Amino acid sequence: MKTVLLLTLSFFMAAGALAHTPQEKGLAIAEEADKRGEGYQDSQVKLRMVLIDNNGDESPRQMRVKTLEGAAEEGDKSLMIFDTPRDQKGVAMLTYTHKAKPDDQWLYLPALKRVKKISSRNKSGPFVGSEFAFEDISSQEVEKYDYKYLRDETVDGKKMFVVERDPKDKYSGYTRQVAWIDQEEYRVWKIDFYDRKNDLLKTLENKDFKQYLDQYWRPSLSVMQNHQTGKATRLEYEAYEFKVGLDERAFTKNSLKRAR
Amino acid sequence: MSMCVGKSAIAMVLLVTTSVTQARTDVLGQVDYELTAYAEDATYGPDAGLKNSVALRGEVYQDWDDGYQSITFKPFYRWDENDEERTHGDIRELIWHKVGLGYELKAGIGKVFWGVTESAHLVDIINQTDLVESIDGEQKLGQPMIQLLLERDWGNLDLFVLPYQRERTLPGQDGRLSGGLAYDDTQYESDQEQSHVAVAGRYYTYIDQLEYAFSVFHGTSREPVLGVSQLSGNVVPYYPLINQLGLEVQYLDEGWAWKLESIYRDGMPEYSIEQFGQRLAVLQTPSGLQVADDEAYWSSVAGFEYTQVGVFDSRIDLGWVAEHLYDSRQAKASLSAFEHDVLLGTRWSFNDAEESTLLVGMLYDYEYQDYGLSLEGSTRLDNRLSVDVEARVFAPSSQNPQFGLRDDDFIEITLQYYF
């Protein structure tokens, strides 16, 4: 009984017992979610991205993502390698996420052996023709948003926090995002994205969460639905691998040229 | 309970081991079918009509040592209906690559790109241009090299030893874009001819949104100087020994990308020998080869690309490109140089499922008051098939070295099948 009480207490401490305003509570939830994802060191995953147009026609592509956890004040580094469609094979994208300044991003075009730096101005643009924007697929550092706790909600028997987060970057394509985060594991199940006119633009749903190394939760399926165009994009993840021993060498500008 | 943990820990170790040490093998191929339409008979050479060409590309890759060592082999062959000079093969790459901590080592035949600008690639000097492949100079021949890359906190340093010089491919008289030129044997300044060993280095780094690079090169020029033989009347390609310093700068500022490439080069003979009412750099006479004096010169491309994201409330990104090209030799500049030109272009990224793009540009020479137009587009038909479209219009004035290409306007469609 005592243990349960302690657990409950520490849970509330983390989730916002210290937070008095909706802003403080929203931030506390984001920080707790972030904390629970810490310590993974590195990960890699294969995924299939399926673009679905208004007629339901699908065009698939395959890619792999390698991620290196940022030390201390640094953001994560990620390398995305495209396998199909075949004209894109060998194309690779390297991202250095930063907490306080715009991310650094480079794209490698194998046909010309050319590494191009991408402007962070493009962050609201579609990622490889999909319904995901560049900013949706980059690492979600806590510092990139202002938060506001809205309410609790029970969805499919799960108690959720509903938290609004407003991008700080003026080039974000969104005025605000509303996220549903479960109170037990702090997983993000759903995000509504509101465009610059504050109209509902897209909804992201994360499904079939799996736990890795007894700690890290990752969805096996993510679906981004665009409400304004009727198009959607599905991300189907294969099994994640964590702590595979990736080092900095796989995440330098030069590594782009040999990414496979 | 502890047993379970132990087991899963072992399973985890096994999983980790297999995933890291798994060697990777890739065998890939590509066939390009190229159809080119010429509206007019060439001034010198073939008639108007449709021309066919087919190219085969392969890639074999094998790595080991946890992926830290690899060999890549990329053969290439093109068959061209008209131009026997364009029917050619090449080893684009055959290279061993080792990745160490803070360094990389490569040995074999490789390909390297340097540069940031669109309209010209001044700094890019490691590989020879495969000019019969594409007039934009972006297709390159494989280059024998040993490359050492140091990747450190203070930046990146690339060092090259280049033991062999490749000759630039040039279109034959039966081909298009040849200007009707016939060539005599190639001449070299170095007694060792193609075996002269060149050395090069490049330092590059970045600070936030500013990227810059300095490079040096000493060896036989990749760009030939074109002379004339008094004996045959044919063109004599001449490759001098040169020194080149290069600078590349790119600064990204929100939607703006500011770009600069500049070279300082010495060793290139100037077009200063008066003969046949023309200015020549090299003249083959019965008594031997006469080469004009060289004078150091500099050349630059500077400009910007401004990108509007999601223009007209659509998914389309629209880019505006403007670049200025300058060569300090002006009228004495080599034939392929841009002495006083401006590029104005627009780039469309449609951000559709097919990732369609379109780049339209006009290169305007403000002294000769002539221009060239270009259009390059690409889209995907399915997972294994994509299509490129290229069109060029040449409108050179009679003073322009490109005058011989005035009737070579073309539209080209290339189907690319991957297997």
UniProtKB/TrEMBL annotation, chain A:
Keyword check for Chloroplast: no
Protein's recorded name: Uncharacterized protein TP-0789 domain-containing protein
Superkingdom of origin organism: Bacteria
Signal peptide span: 1-19
UniProt-listed CDD domains: LolA_like (cd16329)
Keyword terms: Signal
Organism: Bermanella marisrubri
Span of domain Uncharacterized protein TP-0789: 76-258
InterPro entries registered for this protein in UniProt: Sporulation_related (IPR052944), TP_0789-like (IPR033399)
From TrEMBL, chain B:
Keywords tagged on the record: Signal
Descriptive protein name: Uncharacterized protein
Entry keyword annotation includes Signal: yes
Signal peptide coordinates: 1-23
